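Do me a favour: review this protein, sequence plus structure tokens, and tell me how the chain folds. Record follows.
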Amino acid sequence: MADITLPSGYKTAVQAVQRAALDAVDPGKAIHRHLRLENHALILDERLYDLNRFQHVWIAGGGKAVSPMVAALAETLKERLSGGVAVTKYGHAPAAAVGESSLVRIVEAGHPVPDAASVDGACQLADVAASAGEMDLVICLLSGGASALLTLPVSGVELADVQLLTDRLLRSGATINELNTVRKHLSRIKGGGLARIAAPATVISLILSDVVGDPLDVIASGPTAPDPTTFADAWATLEHYGLTEIAPASILQRLRAGLEGAVPDTPKPDDPIFEKVHNVVVGSNRLAAEAAVEAAQGLGLNTLLVSTFVEGEAREVARVAVAIAKEIRQYGRPVAPPACVVWGGETTVTVRGDGRGGRNQELALASALALEGWPDVILVALATDGTDGPTDAAGALATGDTVVRARELGLDPSDFLARNDSYRFFERLGDLIVTGPTQTNVNDLLFLFAF
């Protein structure tokens, strides 16, 4: 974090609130909060699973936060664990855990655009699920990022086709719900596909949510959840973003086949494959936001949790956030200074320029322009997984003097925003937030401090 001249204790407060939010959604702690082993009984909240009834207990996992989830579950199960596979993003697993040396193999793969390792890891995971019999228990560990990391295209669709369409949808400003609707209809593992592969085994899914509202069918593209979306929804998404003319032919052919009923849709809630499946959200953006509020209150700040359902273009959300900051500074409402206002959710960016950045950095840059000249305000936009877009930054911070400092360096903030080049802008100022992989992933957080 940059050294900026701020009121006494300001920087300490920002760091303390940020740290409390991330600690609250530590994946390992989340597993231990919900799951424990007593003698031969595995207790998940109020559900009891008699492990003596199962011949094998397998782990099948995917996501940016899956490595600590695997470690916590392995610690709980001990000798009851038979083995498994988990797929995570490059650099998100301890070196000793990668490969085949441990009981649960950790595969590292590409995100947000999948690569060959994503397919290989998904194949290995599907093999584990397929090997499970009626007397086996499969415990799925899922977190944000699994949609890309677990890529197993349907027959006739190649990885390159999925890569191209994923990139186009991301650049078009599609929401995660829209993106995953398309993904589910091109995959053998998403949209309930993993539950289908694992049947008739008993399946437990422990899920760290990175989606607004925690919908089970959207988080990680719902590998073990019924899918309410259809081929028609997937096609409508491509039409909405003008992609039906430029999407790969194999994908258009697959979706048309689905529309015509030539291939079955994803499994729906009444499908019997879900009779022995139980999905549990063990961590979410809400928990992180509430912990941030509690930490801010402990520091003597007046607090307000606005919402954990924030969506929309990053630039538009920035305008609303700054409007609240100005209201606090000018009129002392909806809370009086010193204040900490917390938001959670996930914005989008429609990429029109050739710059580098992420949605949180773009939000911070748009906020900096609107905050110019307003003292004693700081806005922190943070991706909880430590990776904002295809960058090594988790986000950025903006204050009332960000724009002045930039112009003193010969930088034009409006130009950087027009080119979607927020990373290079904040890099020059030293205002990027760089945490490295946090080993969790529960969407984004926005902290607004006003003194």
The longest strand covers residues 302-310. Confidence is low (pLDDT under 50) at residues 1-7. The longest helix spans residues 314-331.
